[in-house]
Each structure stands twice: as structure tokens, then as C-alpha cells.
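Issue 218. Parser rejects a valid record. Input:
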Amino acid sequence: MKKLSLLFTTLVLMTSTVLLGTSCQKVYTETSVAKKDTTTAQPLPAWYISDLALIYQGGIQRLPWTKDQLIPYIYRKTNTGVDWLFDGFLFIEFKDGMGHEYAEGYEPLPAGKTEWQWLLDRNFENGKALHALDDVLDSLAQLNITPKRKRKVVLTLPEPIRTLSNWGDLNGRTLNFANTADREAACAWYIETALAKWQAANFKHIELMGFYWVAEQNTGAVEILPTVAANIHSKQQRFYWIPYYGAAGAANWKSMGFDIAYQQPNYFFDLSSPYSILTGAINFAQKNKMALEMEFDDRLMNQAGYRQKYTDYINEFTKAGAWNNLPVAYYEGGGAWLTMSLSTDPEIKGLVKRLSDIIVTRQTAADQR
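Output the parser choked on:
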């Protein structure tokens, strides 16, 4: 980091006719805070994701995301069973850890077809990531413990970086990303390949909701995004985006074909960040009918300043009505929630409980609607 009212939410949800690790810390400031809306709740569509966990997975630098590592994201134990936590999982990656990038600005080399295929293979590896998620839910199902709604998955769609002249072969020729049509063709190939792998996996308890545009601003792809979005929609899938605060094109997310955009506040990442960045991002999200992103990482384990920032997000989201009325994505640095959930420190346990209680309440409300 690499998002505020029910009426607001309804507008977000109605933007589609069929219907978000980020790493950036770019910010700008505004000062006003959004007001809470008390509009009557409306039924949720079947594809709705209330709480979307960002699971950084794929690159060799990441956790393998086994069953045990995913459990704290899926549920917490109670005296009578389990409480459900995140109902959505974005498997996100922007670099492979071997010098290749899936979005511009992270590594020396743009990822080609080999790296795109490798990322998909990592997502679908037996016993890890997608399969581990489904396996945890299957183990619970065998105990007659099942959520009312299937857990939902969003997959990363790499950015076809224009400087790459030899992405790889497709239909007998080499794609050159200097050409718009070739960039669109590569995206289409990736989407088709991912859907085929999903169908072959035959998951029982998870369902694919769509694809996430991994570039956090639109300057590198504004000319291809509407076509890519149309292709995704033709497959009955949805298109997700999580721009950083101040990103080019953030206010125009709908016109680019995204079904939902979550605003990154980017307040957490620097202890010197002014509070107005958090409230300004909330205000920007409200103005532009966006969802929101909660942000934290494992620095809060041993630094009080970051624990305070974590608390600031919760407090300001509460003031804005976001917890009651908005989809929320959660950036947690690629494993911080796991680390926090295993902690015996009373203060950390309190932080986990506070956010868990909010998510459990949101999940109950989503189930009832």
C-alpha cells in the first residue's frame, strides 16, 4: 500500500449492469470528514463482498498461505462454534520476487507470459492459497459448520507494461506491448486461462467474483481498461481496483469500467502522516462513490505509534458510518493479521478483538440481508 453511507453504498453497488498489498504510500491532503447516512438498509446482491482481505501471494518472498495460516482470516472460535470473519479474499501480487513486476514501478523487468502463467500456477498450487482456503472451509463443512454465503475470491490481473516488446507468443505471434491490441490480447489470455483453471479446480466452498487491476493508478493503461473491463463482464465476472490516495484516474474509476473501487487512505505507512490524510481520503471516497480500505501491518506489534494509527482508522470509519454501510478491503502487510492473531500480548489481543468484533457484526448483517 501496497476505502460512507447506505445511499452511498447503493450507488456503488449499482454501478455495474452485471454487478478491491498494495504497496504505494503516495498521498495528498484534505480536511473534511464524511457524514453518516442512516438510509434504510437494502437487500444485498449475491456477489456482494463485505470484508475483502488482501492476501499477498505468489512471489517467492511471500507466505505459502497454508490452511493453518489462513484460518485466522476465515473464522474465530467461540464457545458454541465459530464466528465468520472475512468473506472475500483478494489474492494479490505485484512482483515475483525474482526481478519481475506485475505493475510498473516495482522491479527492473516487466513480467512476460512465463511470469503471468507462473503467478496463476502459484495461486492454484495444491495445498496452498486457493486450495488451502477451500480446504479449511471443507474441514468445517464436515463438522456441519458452513457460512450462509460462499467465501468469494478475486484474482490479480497483471498490468501489460508498455515497455515490454516481447511478452511471449499468442496464436502464433509474439505480442509487443507497444501495441494496444496486443496488451488487450494478453489480458484476455490471462482471464481465459484463469477461468479455465478455476473450473478445473472444482472448488466446493469458494466462488470467483472477478479480477483486480494491480496497477494503483491508471496512467499506464487508460486506453485499454474499458476493453479489458468489457471482456471481464462478458464472462459474468467483475472488475476491482484499489487506487492510492491521489492516484491518477481515481475519481473516474467507473468510466474506466471498474465495478467497485476502494480508496486507500495511505495514512498508516508513515508515523509523520497528518491526520488530515485519513479524513481527506474518507471524504474523497464519499465524494466519488468509492468503498474504503483499512490499512495496517506488523509494525504495530512493537510500535505504539502504529497501534494508534490502526485505532485511528477504526475510529474514523466509525464516525463516517463506513462500518455500517460500506464494503471494506483490508491491507495488512502480507501476514500481520496472522501474527496478531497468534500474539499473547494483551494490547495486541485487544486490537484483534476490536476489529474482529466489527467484522463479525458486519458479516452477520450481510448474512441477514
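Fixed in the parser; the record now loads. Residues 162 and 178 are 5 Å apart (CA to CA).
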